[in-house]
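Regression check, iron/sulfur cluster case 243:
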Amino acid sequence: MTDPAARLLEAHRRLCAEFGCPLSYFHALDPLDELVSSLLSHRTRNADSARAFRNLRERFPDWETVRDAPVAEVEEAIAPCTWPEAKAPALQRTLRALTERRGALDLSHLAAMDADAARDWLQSLPGVGPKTAAAVLSFSTMRGRALPVDSHHHRVAQRLGVIPPRMAVGPSHRVMEAMLPAEWGAQEVYDHHQVLMRHGQKTCHFRAPACGRCVLLDICPTGQARRADPFTEAREPDYPAPP
Ligand code: SF4
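Current build output:
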């Protein structure tokens, strides 16, 4: 199978059979909550970012208060995250910029925009990159059609040869989303992200991928190369380490 898009869709088909698509959404947060949650989650384990998010909700009555609080108080609340000293001022900067643009902490206007326009608008906020924008659109109650790419998803795509080995996570969002069938709705795109991410977590590990029990082995150039040459691993690119 030489066409990368065809390989990606075959991987989707097999992994959906393994994980049982359609998959349930794991969040039902409104878009602003999801924005905060996603900003906290960068390079952080899910359980830790969830704890930091809960701390913010318990210590502050609303996001306006988080925005205007002394930064040390926000930093203390999000201490379970990685780099709270950087994330606290960054979160407040994003909330202030949103307030300046919209006159309030409000993302309701996104619902009337198409996915590309909504993604561009979100990415124009300081601190918001392609993954956070896609997470807000896809994971929040908007349930939009957008493809987030985390480090597991990205690593599997690189090993499958559907994106170049040195393509960073940021630019891979649009490249991989463009490979998905236009007729797919939000659920299929969400499933696609979830099954590639879960495959990276359960089988295609950062270190020592379990190629011998992988359902993608016969279509995966990395798996084939590793089987043919035990020293392949030493020549693989440096994939971003997962949190
Ligand atoms: S064959 Fe190996 S490298 Fe390829 S997707 Fe499966 S686990 Fe990852």
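Comparison notes: The CA atoms of residues 55 and 61 lie 11 Å apart. The pocket of iron/sulfur cluster is lined by residues 156, 159-160, 203-204, 209-211, 214, 216-217, 220, 222-223 (CB under 6 Å). No diff flagged against the previous build.
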